[in-house]
Each structure stands twice: as structure tokens, then as C-alpha cells.
Amino acid sequence: xxxxxxxxxxxxxxxxxxxxxxxxxxxxxxxxxxxxxxxxxxxxxxxxxxxxxxxxxxxxxxxxxxxxxxxxxxxxxxxxxxxxxxxxxxxxxxxxxxxxxxxxxxxxxxxxxxxxxxxxxxxxxxxxxxxxxxxxxxxxxxxxxxxxxxxxxxxxxxxxxxxxxxxxxxxxxxxxxxxxxxxxxxxxxxxxxxxxxxxxxxxxxxxxxxxxxxxxxxxxxxxxxxxxxxxxxxxxxxxxxxxxxxxxxxxxxxxxxxxxxxxxxxxxxxxxxxxxxxxxxxxxxxxxxxxxxxxxxxxxxxxxxxxxxxxxxxxxxxxxxxxxxxxxxxxxxxxxxxxxxxxxxxxxxxxxxxxxxxxxxxxxxxxxxxxxxxxxxxxxxxxxxxxxxxxxxxxxxxxxxxxxxxxxxxxxxx
Length: 414
Fold this sequence. Notes:
Elements: H1 2-11, H2 13-32, H3 38-44, H4 49-77, H5 79-99, H6 103-131, H7 137-166, H8 170-173, H9 175-189, H10 204-207, H11 213-240, H12 245-252, H13 254-273, H14 275-300, H15 302-328, H16 336-366, H17 376-411
Helix pairs in contact: 2-6, 2-7, 2-9, 3-4, 4-5, 4-6, 4-16, 5-6, 5-9, 6-7, 6-16, 7-13, 7-15, 11-12, 11-15, 11-16, 11-17, 13-14, 13-15, 14-15, 14-17, 16-17
């Protein structure tokens, strides 16, 4: 029966791809669209920046805490019904955000929205793996990477367009019909979950084994480095190179644009040449890009920054497609939700690490926590130190994965 379902799915891939891609788009859009509204929210609620920043932090924290729970519930109660539940929660929470009368109610609604997003992000990956044929898993993961990058890139642009016309509430209202549409498509297009009603008989610790742990650690380290570019990049471009805000925004858009166009090709390479080879190449490109960011911009300015990003970003998409494929390669169908949740958890912890620990590294390199008073020379020094450390983190990830694949080859020689 399961073989018949898979054959039917291969004939109608769009019926599966469209709702899952829209779910992933919503989760990433929710992550980035609120950032641009923070100054407006500070004025609207007459609140200090630290309090307003909780609008972003609450979403990320709730998402991070909930991803593994979402995966476990998907395995236990069925991936499709739990994705539909997540979409319903996301739609309702978006509406609560839009009508919130106080800042603290908005923060609470954003936390609820983050819980919904955890179901969207985690179960979209699990369902895509479940429905993709063996020869197209890499492409499926690459497509989700492309959609995720698209949502992250679209958030600030869409928010900047809506806020002048609708006020800050518009950035949440726009997510309501999108979530309802995704819910309708998921219910009508996705196939029934084959394991619906079954209780997964595995514990979380059984997934945290030697086979999966290297993928999770590498995922965390790589996500930390990618977040570092988003945190440190604007300071360096604006204060180190003297670019205007418009110019900084243009240069910072290079990475997301490359991500959008490189995700699916990266997945095709994984399907063609295998995840182990492509994972290695992805990490090599990431290491090269990170070390070039430490050196090249200081030599030839913004051109060096852009060239480094052009090398770094495809490496990230190649790594993501290969690592997700590798982690889910031999996972039983009733465990894919849990493993997808662990992948999302490790990525989110990496994003938080990049924003905090790597941000602190940058401040240490600059020589002051008061970055608004830093000199261009100090910013340059901080940039160099931060991305030398980032390059070192990628080397650690390379060592972890090399040891992992070497050990697997030794135990199971071809």
C-alpha cells in the first residue's frame, strides 16, 4: 500500500510541493518580517528598544523550544494533521498579533506564532522527505532551502512596503490569509499520513546517536557562521566602509538572492553525486568564504565582501541540502518528524549562538561594546577576528564530518 502511495505521489509532485513550500515560506517570513517594524513599535507603544526587541526574540525562542516537540507529535499523531494544526495555530496567532492592544499581548501572540512556525518548519521537512522519491531527496531539500531563503529575504522588503500604508499591524494581517490558504492546500492536496494514529515507540535519546550527532553539530556550527554575516555585516559595511543605509541594504541582499537561485541546483548536485561528496564541497566553500571575509574586504573593500559572499552562500545551500539528506537518509518513516525537529533545533541554536557569542567576539575585536562610538579601524579589526573564528568553526565542522564518514566507511566498507 505504501508503494502505491509513493507511486501516486511521484505522478503529482506539485500537489505535495506547493503546500509544503508555502508552509516553509510562512515560517521564515514570520522570522524576518517583524525586524523592520521594531522602530515603529517602539513609537507606537512608547517602549524602550529592549522591550520591543522581545517581539522578535519571543518568536525565535518559542520556535526553538517547540521544534522537537512538533516533530514528536508529527511522528505520533501523523505528519499531515499536525502540519494542519500548526497552520491553524499560526493563522490564529497572526490575527492576535494584528489586533494586540498592548506590547505584552503582542509579545505573547508572537510566542504563539513561533510555536505554530515550529510545526510548519519541522513537518514540512519531514513530509518532503516522506513523499520524495529516493532519487529526488536532495532536490526536495534544496527546494525547501530556496523557499526558506526567499521568505527571509522577502520579510524586510514586504514589511517596508506595508508599514507606511497599513501601519505595523499590516505585517501581521498579511500573514493570516497566507496561512489560511496554506491550511486549505495542505488539507486538500497532501496525502493521508500512513502512520496516523500510531504511537512512535522511540525515545528522543535513541535519535541522538553517533550517526546523527555529527550532522546536528555541523548544522549548528554552520548556522552560527551564517548568522554572523547578518549580525556583523551591516556594522562593517556601514561603519567600516562608510556605505549609506541604502547601499548596505543592497549589499546585504546579495546573499539571500544567491540562496534563492542556488538551493534547487544544490539539491540536484546532491542527488547526482551523493550527499557525502557534496557535503564536503559545501563545507570547503563555507570555510573559504569565511576566511575570505576576514581578509578580502579589508584589502579591496565592498568588492571583496561581495566576492566572499558569492563563495560562502552557495556553500551553505550545498551543505544544507546534503546534510538534511544525509540525516534523513536511513530514518524510518515514524521517526522523520523527530529527526527533522532535531535538525531545526540545532539550526536555531546555531542562529542564537551566531547572534550572541559571535556578536560578542565582534565587540571584543572592535575593543568596545559601544559600537556606535567605534572607529572604522576598530570595526575592521572586529570583522577580521570574527570571521577568522568563523572559519575555524567551519574547520571544526569539517573535522567532525570527516571523522563521521570515515568511521561509517570503516564499519560498512563498500
